[in-house]
Amino acid sequence: MPKPGLSIGYLADRSGLAVSAIRYYETQGLLTPWRNSGGQRRFERADIRRLSFILIAQKFGFTLPEIREQLATLPGKRTPTKADWAQLSAAFREHLDARIAQLETLRDRLDGCIGCGCLSLDSCKLYNPDDAAAELGPGPRYVLGDNASDLGIVSACSDTDST
Q1: At what angle do helices 8-15 and 46-59 cross, to 10 degrees?
Q2: pLDDT digit string (tens) for 52-90?
Q3: Phi/psi zone of residue 17: left (φ > 0), alpha (ψ -120 to 50 degrees), beta?
Q4: How many CA atoms lie within 13 A of 22 on its CB side?
Q5: C-alpha radius of gyration, the chain, whole number
Q6: Residue 49 burial by CB count (10 A; 0-12/13-18/19+): exposed, middle or buried?
Q7: 31: nearest Cα among 54, 57, 10, 15
Q8: pLDDT by residue (tens digit) across 15-35?
Q9: What pTM value is reported for the model?
């Protein structure tokens, strides 16, 4: 007896995603449907959970390659068990904790800069003489976690420095 599987339309209805989005996730290696004797895509019931995980992870700002890496830890030949999902969740939690720490640093540094009140380009930690922060890499280096002190620049806003 052939296994029935779920149609892509049912999966779209159940997940709230467009059929085209599900096909896109398939091309990205996030889902692996099989074909029935008529050549139609069929999905496992567990793919509803996979799609839910994809949607949640994307809302938290994870890229499709990062999501694919996490989903690759699930078994491909059988429906993932509760223990399989718990293992993925534990690993994903580490990524979430790192992302949360990064966001907290961003929040705290933005608050410090905005709330500092020094209003002096000579002493504010946003001041970047001769683009010295470029030595630390591209982008807003101080907001991303670097410090002016890493370059030997002393900030008069030390009461707002969180690191």
Answers
A1: 50
A2: 999 989 988 889 999 999 888 888 767 888 898 898 888
A3: beta
A4: 25
A5: 23
A6: middle
A7: 54
A8: 999 999 999 999 999 999 999
A9: 0.64
